[in-house]
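=== RUN LOG ===
request id: a7f3
mode: sequence -> structure
chains: 1
length: 104
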Amino acid sequence: MRIALHTKVRADRVTEYEAAHREVPKELTDAIRAAGASSWTIWRSGTDLFHVLECEDYGRLLAELERLPVNIAWQARMAELLDVVHDYTADGADAGLPVVWELP
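=== RESULT ===
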């Protein structure tokens, strides 16, 4: 399944957000893959962040990551950098953006 998400980085924390993503812990990326994700890409336009991820089951992915110490630490770090407009972890599998159009 393909999931699209929209989040916002705080305007005063863009540089720090991008730096953090150059150093995502290998333990976390391994856990994300083990939970069923095959890809995850984040684009930034100003303070808007657009994520697209491919995974077997988004709800399961979130559930498997929820209690992992490496993910808990990462989410705490991201909470300092993001504007909480839409908390995709709290909204679970319902957080994805609705598809409006796809190239046939």
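=== NOTES ===
Residues 69-81 form the longest helix (13 residues).
Strands lie at 2-9, 37-45, 48-55, 82-83.
=== END ===
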